[in-house]
Each structure stands twice: as C-alpha cells, then as structure tokens.
Amino acid sequence: MGRIAYVNGRFVPKRDAMVHIEDRGYQLADAVYEVWALFDGLLADPEGHFARLERSLAELRISMPMSRRALTLVLKEAVRRNRVREGLVYLQVSRGVATRDHAFPTTPVAPSVVITVSRVDRAATEARAAKGVGVVTTPENRWGRCDIKTVGLLPNALAKQKAREAGAVEAWFIDDLGLVTEGASSNAWIVDQDGTLRTRDTNANILRGVTRLSLLDVAREAGLKVEERPFTPDEALKAKEAFITGAGSLVLPVVSVDGKPVGDGAPGPVAMRLRRLYIERAKATAI
C-alpha cells in the first residue's frame, strides 16, 4: 500500500496529493506547521504541539481549520491509513487559496490543511545517538518572529545545507552577541563544567520547542540543575556535554562544534540518560 496524504478533507495517494498554485502557503509562506513524533502509533507531546499550533495560527490570524478533537481524529486516521508505528506526522495549515496579494484576502477563505506521515528507523536513530553528531555554526539571519512556527524556512534550509556539506547534522545560529540561539531544526543545550544544563530562554528569538519544554520537566524531575541561559560556541566546546532536542532528533548528543570536539568527543552520560527518560515520558503520555 502506498503512502496516503490528507489534503483539505480528503485522503489521497501521496503521489496524487496537491494544493492550488495560489495557495498562500506556497506563494507567500503564509502558513504554519507542526511535527509530532510517533511512538507505537501514538502522538507524542500532544498538549504541547496543539497549544503551539493554536498560538502560531493566532499570531498570524489564521483560523483553526477544525476543533482540536476533530484534528486529533484526522491525525490518527492518517497514521492508521499509513500503517506507521514509529515515525513522524507532519501537519501544515495555510491561510488558504486567494488571488496573489501580500495583504490578507478581503473575503474569507478556508484554511488549507495537509497531513503526511513518514516512518522512522528507531534502531538507526539509537545508533546515531550512541555515536553522537556534529554541528556547525552560522550567523543568525532569520526574521524576528522565530517563535511562530511558520513554513518560511529558507535560512534554516541554507544552514542545514552548510551542515551537510561540512559532514555535520545540524547548524547552530549565532546572534550578534556571539551567543547560540538554536539549531536550524532543534534547540541547543550544553552541560557546563558545573554540571548545569543550559539552553536559551524563550525571551530570545527562538522557537518554543515542545521537546525542549518536555525535557525541562524531565530534567528537573531527575534532580538536575537547569538554567535557561545562553552560551557561546566556545562555552559549548569547553562544556562537559552538548546535545540538541526536537521531534525528529528527540535528545541527540553533540560531539563536535565546527569540527572541534565537545568534552571527550563522545556522547555523555547526562544526554544519554535524558534521552532515555524523555522517550519513557513521551511514550507514557502519547495519545
């Protein structure tokens, strides 16, 4: 059975899925998205993702396309039809189809909704975590509302390409003060020399990561000291450990920054423990 997509009220073969050429998400990046991790066919961190979706839509003055309950049913049906147990669910909501104009349509249009589901090889991701990954740094060049999870991701795409060409997995954006903001598709963390977990606070121009938020709770419940305080790339290199978080990466140890080793150049015990604890929590609270 081929993969199935949901597009504006219909489940269709992915090869046949399409949106109108004047969809504002396609032409103007006038759209938001969310990505859920799937564990045993269930949606991880549901409350965090739904809350962020609703906030992002509200910030752009796009209506929720359906109730949270109805959307949950559609997401679950997409998972069922694709027969995926371990993977990712992608949801995109645009303002809808209208004659191209930068300003909002003057007459109401229905939001466009797209859902796709993909498989993840958990064994491969565990192997990658056990080995650790590299990151590169790049100047912060994104717009000033990264707290809204929009599809306007060209700077992120360019940063990811820079990482790939350097043999790394992620890129960390560096602001004008020389501080790490976040990754191109993840939040950035270190375990400093005092054993304190540090990650950038959400008063900065960063995405309010759902995995990040869950991990803050996990870390505090585990008795770890946590500070929402920025760090520099040099502090990351001098740290005991570093890692990234996101729906796709979960908790992924970082072993090098710009080709230089973090700590002893191997995944550290804190990151690996937090990865295990986060996955346990995600599975226990998934719907």
TrEMBL record:
Pfam families: Aminotran_4. One of its GO terms (cellular component) is cytosol. Pathway: Amino-acid biosynthesis; L-isoleucine biosynthesis; L-isoleucine from 2-oxobutanoate: step 4/4; Amino-acid biosynthesis; L-leucine biosynthesis; L-leucine from 3-methyl-2-oxobutanoate: step 4/4; Amino-acid biosynthesis; L-valine biosynthesis; L-valine from pyruvate: step 4/4. SUPFAM superfamilies: D-aminoacid aminotransferase-like PLP-dependent enzymes. It comes from the Bacteria. Gene3D superfamilies: 3.30.470.10, D-amino Acid Aminotransferase, subunit A, domain 2. GO terms for biological process: amino acid biosynthetic process; branched-chain amino acid biosynthetic process. Acts on leucine, isoleucine and valine. Belongs to the class-IV pyridoxal-phosphate-dependent aminotransferase family. This is Probable branched-chain-amino-acid aminotransferase. It comes from Phenylobacterium kunshanense.
